[in-house]
Design goal:
The chain is of the alpha/beta class. It has one domain: Homocysteine-binding-like domain (TIM Barrel). It is about 45% helix and about 15% strand. The protein has an eight-stranded parallel beta sheet. It has a two-stranded antiparallel ribbon with strand order 8-9.
Length: about 290
């Protein structure tokens, strides 16, 4: 069954958790250059997620588009790092999980706030999606994007050029005032615009929300679209301890928060910053009990 059919036939789909904060814990920082520099560590993390009970793994390619790579002087080849990300996730999945190609922000702003045009963003996302598609992903997950216009550029680049499902997940700063991103986009506007642009799944991840707050945003998204809803919260609110950012929400508490997201209307769930294979396993066990 391809991932499009799986989306239509499966009542609840469990995605994996964070890769970046898992790399940080190993002293590698959460950058996709680790696909090339430390592939064994990336593979180890993804294998742990594969064994946690999830249905899909996400490639470690979050911001590996040309604009981000060049403006951050990373010295990485776009094709090489994205292809390696797919190969590692596919190896970890071992034909037991779907593999979703991870696409995220350029790290820059569109005109008039920044120096980039929508066509430049579109071309960068298209190039990355092309590599991910050629390497064999089952679908795209466009996530951790704070600006609706940028999310739409990425979505169009995927849907206009490739016959693969595309999940789009927005990072919200607050669940109040209609749910808002740091750029002021409301949950309703995001849901309606992304639906019209052809997103197969619409959701929320990361941002400044804990799982219970994300459940509020999920309900707003659900009321504004007929598309499936994704919720991938962080493991609670981060705290700075000895100059390190830590997430302290226990797996059981995280699973309880995910249950709230499901009750609010989510049908795809997973974890973002601070979540571990243990958090995803706790969610899998909660789902089994239900």
């Amino acid at each position: 069954m391809d991932f499009s059919a799986f989306l239509q036939n499966q009542e609840i789909i469990l995605l994996d958790g964070a890769i970046g904060t898992e790399l940080d814990k190993r002293g590698l920082m959460g950058r996709a250059s680790n696909n090339l520099d430390s592939p064994k560590v990336v593979l180890e993390i993804q294998r742990e997620y594969a064994q946690s009970g999830c249905d899909a793994l996400t490639t470690n390619t979050l911001t590996m588009n040309r604009i981000f790579i060049e403006t951050h002087n990373l010295g990485i080849d776009v094709r090489e790092v994205n292809r390696a990300g797919v190969e590692l996730a596919r190896q970890a999945a071992d034909n037991k999980q779907y593999v979703l190609g991870n696409i995220s922000s350029t790290g820059q702003l569109l005109e008039p706030y920044g120096d980039y045009s929508e066509s430049q963003f579109y071309d960068a996302f298209k190039e990355q999606a092309q590599v991910l598609a050629e390497a064999g992903v089952d679908g795209f997950i466009i996530e951790t994007i704070f600006y609706l216009r940028e999310a739409l550029c990425a979505l169009r680049a995927c849907k206009e050029n490739f016959q693969l499902p595309a999940i789009v997940s927005i990072a919200f700063a607050t669940e109040t005032k209609g749910g808002r991103t740091i750029m002021g986009n409301s949950a309703e506007d995001c849901a309606k615009s992304l639906t019209e642009a052809g997103a197969d799944v619409i959701g929320a991840n990361c941002g400044d929300l804990d799982p219970a707050q994300m459940a509020v945003v999920v309900s707003m998204l659900k009321s504004a679209t007929n598309k499936p809803i994704l919720a991938q919260p962080n493991a609670g609110k981060p705290r700075l301890v000895d100059d390190k950012t830590v997430f302290e929400m226990a797996p059981a508490d995280f699973a309880a928060g995910i249950a709230e997201c499901l009750q609010a209307g989510a049908s795809l769930v997973g974890g973002c910053c601070g979540t571990t294979p243990e958090h995803i396993r706790a969610v899998a066990e909660m789902l089994d009990e239900k």
